[in-house]
């Protein structure tokens, strides 16, 4: 299925020894590139015949000639510099769009690496017409992967993004099993292409040698399975040894693999290795049903994406282990608490079995401790188990032991396979041999193979030569007397629980006391770390609750008061979080608080003066002060009637401090409060105490006037940015806002993927994504569209032609823009609103409701 690149073009393989037989590379390269081999003294020793097509030079022109004699000075300088960057034997350095030759202005993409004492330099002609891809796109690609919660979702998202990046008809995420076979666990494909999702492939499809190569060279590309290949001349290096091209990007692949691809109907392929802790975890396998060239630049981007994806996989696995550890710690604590009275495992078997089943899915549990048999669920009976335990005594030596096919190791188990086909044993002592054993029932599994796995290879017409299989039709295998396999997660959990159960046993001895002390110390460290992380926020909330309880007399009033203050903190936290914990706008803070609390009265609050950026350390303090001033005004001040207003003026003092003037007027008469509540304390004391500023309050009869002074060290400067308003909340009408087939026209891959998710969440059943005008017009012609979202600017063109076609056909659409193009198109398309980038599901929904209102009388 994947790229089993057994090196060489004429390879003799002994089928009985194919995992160990060395494979000799005879030196061929593909048509899209060429290579030259340079000795350390920069004299060319070998070259691909294809140098004539790519460089305009024959091998005779350059073999034995100083490298610098035909390469430009800049190219020689750059290549020498890149050689210094090579950090390991498997490193490859790249240069893009460089003028390589002295007498030719053509530009090339170049790869450089060491092969023993030889420098391998590979050339590909740079495609100036190919769209460029910025490496900055990798971060949002990886950010999208991090959103997913499971490995399968991550792999599916990665396959979609690689297909969008590289343009193949099909991209699969292929994961290796422990036995070397593999499974397609995720897939992104063009419409009309058959699905390979869920198919398994035998280990022989990708030989052991190829797997080792995958770990060294992460990307392999075949642009045309029928393309011409070119030999290396001379065949040997100057010292008579073979040239190792394991890291070569343009090297030809085995004709066996090319035949394999032809048998599948594939014309071009690319594979990208996925490593986990240095071992081969799987591949991104790409297929195309016509010749397909991927530029060096995009291949490099895909390689970097795969390496970063591997890190995300490892990080996800660590998180899963951490979560599992906490969960097992909880089970551990329950078990230790339940067994604190010193009872034995047998006496507490039901409790222990229930804990085991909650941690590791199974159908039954047997306890065999001190010669006592206890059982719950679907298991062998006592006689059957005693015969089995003798086998365990010879197989499991104080360690976790698992099998999903008991009958294979203990033939009498066939008699009770429907009840128990798989087991996981936890030894809980050394002498006598005591066990807790988890059992799983027989699972009638049907495994889908891409062809019969018993016939992965056949003998070729030329004798003992490996020939790839020709049938890739799905072949279903029914597996009997097997349970669902025990996962690595099951085994990790079991090992942690085994340690817990051993502790239960040992606690009856003096050694158990020492074990408990160590466990307690570890738990104290964990609690201390957790306490350190949450102490500040808990203390703050406690203070808010404590200081607020005397302010009102009713429970509902107290709940509203505390809730409002905590919400003010939350809104402030959201605002600085959105700014990546950088300084944030004071006007936005005020407007957010005013809009949230005052609702319809919010338009009676005006903010004058230049905006100012408040540092995160001062943001929480100011948010509470603004909240208390706002609520006081709504309850007792200018906004407690229908006429009053608040004018907030921001200005800069001579020493750079911020002066906030809060003036209430035209409201009811005001008098100073007779008691000091927590709200008044926040207003008067928090700024002087926490920010070393000052507060001056004047309860004039005509309205409250407050002057707040914030020192410059809590600010990040003043700005002339326009006042911010909170984004309006969308109230969705009944039913979905979109339906049917929707088109997205967007030339940025990441934005297009986000837009696809948004319209699907709004009800679209299928989505056509186009990156340019031509693709969009084809989509309109072929699909029965119900709606379209058009990016106004498409590089050097606009989507005006697409909008014209949609208008003629009566298909509703919205524009999306990060600039001001809509102003130019507004007169021509007055019916189409514009969503300002970056847009969200809520903002698109709001525009849909305003521009294309839902018929409230229509049936749901």
Detailed description of the structure:
The protein is an alpha+beta fold. Among the domains are: 339-444 and 480-508, Beta-Lactamase (2-Layer Sandwich), CATH 3.30.450; 568-719, Histidine kinase-like ATPase, C-terminal domain (Heat Shock Protein 90), CATH 3.30.565; 741-851, Response regulator (Rossmann fold, 3-Layer(aba) Sandwich). 37% of the residues lie in helices and 24% in strands. The strands form nine sheets. A seven-stranded antiparallel β-sheet has the order 1-11-3-2-6-5-4. Strand 5 and strand 6 (118-125) form a beta hairpin. The longest helix is centred in the middle third of the chain and has 43 residues, at 296-338. Mean pLDDT is 78; it is low at 1-25, 451-457, 459-467, 526-540 and 726-734.
Shape: globular
Contiguous runs where pLDDT drops below 50 for at least 5 residues: 1-25, 451-457, 459-467, 526-540, 726-734
Strand content: 15-25%
The CATH H-level homologous superfamily of the domain at 568-719: Histidine kinase-like ATPase, C-terminal domain
Biggest β-sheet, characterized?
A: 7 strands, antiparallel
CATH class category of the domain at 568-719:
Alpha Beta
Based on secondary structure, the structural category is: alpha+beta
Radius of gyration: 35 Å
């Amino acid at each position: 299925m994947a790229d089993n690149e057994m090196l060489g073009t004429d390879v003799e393989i002994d089928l009985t020894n194919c995992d160990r037989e060395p494979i000799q590379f005879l030196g061929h390269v593909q048509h899209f590139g060429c290579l030259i081999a340079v000795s350390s003294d920069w004299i060319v020793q070998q070259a691909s015949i294809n140098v004539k097509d790519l460089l305009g030079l024959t091998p005779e022109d350059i073999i034995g000639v100083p490298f610098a004699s035909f390469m430009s000075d800049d190219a020689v300088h750059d290549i020498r510099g890149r050689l210094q960057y090579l950090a390991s034997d498997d490193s490859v350095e790249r240069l893009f769009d460089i003028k390589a030759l002295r007498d030719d202005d053509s530009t090339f993409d170049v790869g450089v690496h060491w092969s023993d004492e030889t420098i391998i330099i590979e050339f590909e002609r740079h495609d100036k017409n190919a769209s460029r891809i910025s490496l900055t796109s990798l971060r949002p690609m990886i950010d999208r992967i991090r959103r997913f919660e499971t490995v399968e979702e991550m792999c599916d998202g990665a396959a979609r993004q690689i297909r969008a990046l590289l343009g193949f008809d099909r991209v699969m995420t292929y994961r290796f099993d422990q036995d070397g076979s593999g499974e397609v666990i995720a897939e992104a494909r063009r419409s009309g292409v058959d699905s390979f999702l869920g198919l398994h492939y035998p280990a022989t499809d990708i030989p052991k040698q190829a797997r080792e190569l995958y770990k060294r060279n992460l990307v392999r590309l075949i642009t045309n399975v029928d393309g011409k290949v070119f030999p290396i001349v001379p065949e040997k290096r100057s010292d008579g040894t073979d040239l190792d091209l394991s890291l070569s990007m343009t090297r030809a692949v085995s004709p066996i693999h090319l035949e394999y691809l032809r048998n599948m109907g594939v014309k071009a392929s690319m594979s990208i290795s996925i490593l986990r802790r240095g071992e081969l975890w799987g591949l991104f396998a790409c297929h195309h049903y016509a010749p397909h060239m991927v530029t060096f630049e995009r291949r490099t981007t895909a390689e970097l994406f795969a390496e970063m994806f591997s890190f995300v996989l490892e990080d996800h696995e660590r998180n899963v282990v951490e979560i599992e550890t906490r969960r097992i710690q909880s089970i551990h604590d329950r078990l230790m608490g339940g067994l604190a009275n010193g009872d034995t495992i047998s006496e507490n078997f039901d409790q222990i079995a229930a804990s085991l089943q909650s941690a590791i899915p199974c159908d039954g549990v047997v306890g065999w401790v001190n010669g006592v048999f206890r059982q719950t669920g679907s298991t062998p009976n006592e006689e059957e188990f005693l015969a089995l335990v003798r086998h365990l005594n010879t197989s499991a030596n104080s360690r976790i032991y698992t099998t999903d096919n008991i009958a294979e190791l203990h033939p009498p188990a066939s008699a009770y396979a429907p009840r128990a086909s798989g087991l996981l044993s936890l030894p809980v002592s050394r002498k006598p041999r005591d066990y807790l054993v988890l059992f799983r029932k027989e699972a009638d599994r049907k495994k889908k193979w891409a062809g019969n796995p018993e016939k992965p290879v056949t003998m070729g017409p030329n004798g003992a030569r490996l020939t790839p299989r020709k049938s890739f039709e799905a072949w279903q295998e029914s597996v009997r007397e097997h349970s669902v396999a025990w996962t690595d997660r099951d085994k990790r959990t079991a090992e942690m629980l085994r340690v817990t159960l051993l502790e239960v046993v040992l606690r009856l001895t003096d050694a158990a006391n020492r074990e408990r002390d160590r466990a307690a110390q570890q738990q104290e460290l964990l609690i201390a770390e957790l306490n350190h992380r949450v102490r500040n926020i808990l203390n703050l909330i406690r203070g808010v609750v404590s200081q607020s309880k005397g302010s009102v007399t009713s429970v509902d009033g107290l709940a509203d008061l505390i809730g409002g203050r905590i919400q003010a903190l939350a809104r402030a936290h959201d605002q600085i979080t959105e700014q990546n914990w950088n300084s944030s706008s004071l006007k936005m803070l005020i407007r957010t608080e005013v809009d949230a609390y005052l609702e319809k009265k919010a338009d009676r609050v005006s903010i004058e003066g230049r905006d100012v950026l408040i540092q995160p350390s001062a943001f929480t303090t100011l948010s509470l002060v603004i909240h208390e001033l706002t609520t006081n005004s709504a309850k007792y001040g200018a906004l407690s009637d229908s006429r009053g207003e608040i004018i907030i003026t921001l200005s800069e003092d001579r020493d750079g401090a911020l002066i906030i003037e809060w003036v209430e007027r035209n409201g009811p008469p005001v008098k100073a409060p007779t008691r000091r509540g927590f709200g008044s304390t926040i207003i008067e004391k928090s700024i002087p105490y926490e920010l070393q500023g000052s507060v001056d309050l004047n309860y004039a009869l005509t309205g409250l006037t407050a002057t707040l002074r914030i020192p410059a060290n809590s600010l990040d400067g003043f700005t002339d940015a326009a006042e911010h308003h909170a984004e309006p909340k969308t109230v969705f009408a009944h039913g979905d806002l979109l339906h049917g087939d929707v088109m997205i026209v967007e030339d940025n891959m990441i934005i297009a993927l986000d837009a696809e998710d948004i319209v699907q969440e709004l009800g679209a059943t299928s989505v056509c994504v186009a990156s340019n005008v031509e693709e969009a017009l084809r989509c309109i012609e072929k699909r029965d569209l119900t709606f379209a979202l058009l990016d106004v600017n498409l590089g050097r063109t606009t989507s005006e032609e697409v909008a014209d076609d949609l208008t003629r056909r009566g298909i509703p659409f919205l524009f999306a823009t990060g600039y001001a193009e809509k102003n130019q198109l507004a007169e021509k398309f007055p019916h189409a609103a514009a969503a300002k980038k970056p847009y969200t599901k809520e903002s698109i929904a709001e525009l849909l409701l305003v521009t294309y209102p839902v018929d409230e009388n229509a049936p749901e």
